[in-house]
């Protein structure tokens, strides 16, 4: 079973603040990292799939970086808005050669972000 | 992407009963999965739904408790059998067009409360 940790568990920020949170995962047998955003009563929405060490991806005000050697990824939100309020999930996808974990995403516990107007 | 619908969206059930959750995808997909999220916990994979054969269950989940059907490439059902309050969770259907690192898409979930 993979150990995937996200911190903080929850975060309250004011509208306009920039924020970031962390996903840490085992660095061995790493294949890819998925980030999802999950609003209450909606489907989890795929944000990024990242594979390369040093990779940086951006979607509007949200960006993410990846360090596969030390096993962590940061998600950044610039100028948070109330509509950014959601739970942000990361999920590493390990090498398919690892039969115990190669066929599924292992999710972290998520970071619940609440943006106050 | 893929558009996924689930029925029911929520339900409140009595202990000892069973509930079948349906998942419908707008196009054929190779892989379908069922996840659950218990209160305060991570999303956990229950099983991979295999078309035309028995589902592949993850450790801690068994067919008698969570029977799964997948009659074709666009539809699957998950039954939660002999429910107890510990089964209160959000159950999500998820699909992937092919293996590997590609994006995985989720349905809106079924929020189940067992009393």
**Largest interface (C-beta under 8 Å):** A-B, 24 and 22 residues
User: Which class do the helix and strand fractions of chain B yield?
Assistant: mainly beta
The N- to C-terminal Cα distance of chain A equals 39 Å
Helix content bin of chain A: under 10%
- With helices defined by DSSP (H or I, 4 residues minimum), what is the helix count of chain A? 0
User: Could you tell me the mean pLDDT of chain A?
Assistant: 90
Characterization of this structure:
Chain A is 0% helix and 51% strand. With 117 residues, chain A is an all-beta fold. In chain A, strands 1-3-8-7-6 form a 5-stranded antiparallel beta sheet, with no helix packed on it. In chain A, strands 2-10-9-4-5 form a 5-stranded mixed beta sheet, with no helix packed on it. Mean pLDDT of chain A is 90; it is low at 98-102. Helix content of chain B is 0%, strand content 50%. In chain B, the strands form 2 sheets. In chain B, strands 2, 4, 5, 6, 9, 10 and 11 form a 7-stranded mixed beta sheet that branches. A 4-stranded antiparallel beta sheet of chain B has the order 1-3-8-7, with no helix packed on it. Chain B starts with a strand and ends with a strand. The model of chain B has no long low-confidence stretch (mean pLDDT 92). Chain A binds chain B through residues 1, 4, 31-32, 34, 36, 41-44, 46, 49, 51, 89, 91, 93, 96, 103-105, 107-110, and chain B through 4, 33, 41-45, 48, 58-59, 92, 99-109.
């Amino acid at each position: 079973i993979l150990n995937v940790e996200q911190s903080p568990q929850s975060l309250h920020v004011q509208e306009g603040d920039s924020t970031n949170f962390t996903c840490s995962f085992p660095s061995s047998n790493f294949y890819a990292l998925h980030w999802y955003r999950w609003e209450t009563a909606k489907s989890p929405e795929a944000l990024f799939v990242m594979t390369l060490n040093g990779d940086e991806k951006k979607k509007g005000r949200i960006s993410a970086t990846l360090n596969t050697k030390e096993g962590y990824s940061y998600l950044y939100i610039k100028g948070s808005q109330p509509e950014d309020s959601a739970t942000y999930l990361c999920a590493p996808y390990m090498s398919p050669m690892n039969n115990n974990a190669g066929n599924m995403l292992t999710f972290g516990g998520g970071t619940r972000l609440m943006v106050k107007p | 992407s893929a558009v996924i619908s689930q029925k029911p969206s929520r339900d409140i059930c009595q202990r000892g009963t069973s509930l079948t959750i349906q998942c419908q995808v707008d196009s054929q997909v190779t892989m379908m999965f069922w996840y659950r999220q218990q209160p305060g916990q991570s999303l956990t994979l229950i099983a991979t739904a295999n078309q035309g054969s028995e589902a592949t269950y993850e450790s801690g989940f068994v067919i008698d408790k969570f029977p799964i059907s997948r009659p074709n490439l666009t539809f699957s059902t998950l039954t939660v059998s002999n429910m107890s309050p510990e089964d209160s969770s959000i159950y999500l259907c998820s699909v992937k067009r092919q293996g590997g690192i590609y994006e995985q898409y989720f349905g809106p979930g079924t929020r189940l409360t067992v009393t």
